[in-house]
Amino acid sequence: MSTKTEDEWRAVLTPEQFAVLRQKGTERPGTGEYTRKFDPGVYNCGACGAALYKSSTKFDAHCGWPAFYEAIPGAVHRIEDNSLGMNRTEIVCSQCASHLGHVFKGEGFKTPTDERHCVNSISLKFDSDQ
After folding, report:
1. Catalytic-labelled residue, pool 45, 48, 93, 118
2. Are 68 and 60 within 8 A, CB to CB?
3. Is 24 left (phi over 0), alpha (psi -120 to 50) or beta?
4. How does pLDDT run across 30-61, given as a tens digit for each residue?
């Protein structure tokens, strides 16, 4: 886990990144840079750079955010989230605990895991060289 303080994160992230990655915000649907990107590569944490998702696991869920059916093993930590009157599962980067989004199960998508990792684009940084 990262040992940066919130002030140190604030110094290296844009205000928009800080609001989502460190304060568990959500970007508006359909506005993210990676929502419609399907190029080969790896999606890394927008805060610490840790590899999170292979592009081969990305699919179009028509939900307004990038969707993946599985993370790179060990890259994402799941946390029960009962905020907003819902029972959801939050996903955070295993390396720095930055907020990525939420994972949903059993929605019927034709994927190997029947999961949708709904991730904020601003929580990611795409690398086509990995």
Report:
1. 118
2. no
3. left
4. 999 999 999 999 999 999 999 999 999 999 99
| pTM, rounded to two decimals | 0.93
Contact 19, 46 (CB under 8 A): no
Angle formed at CA 104 by CA 102 and CA 108, multiple of 5 degrees: 150
Rg (CA), the chain: 14
Torsion of CA 70, 126, 51, 80, to 10 degrees: -50
C-alpha–C-alpha distance, residues 89 and 48, integer Å: 22
Q: Is 96 a catalytic residue?
A: no
b/e for 45-62, b at 16 or more Cβ within 10 A? bbbbebebbbbebbeebe
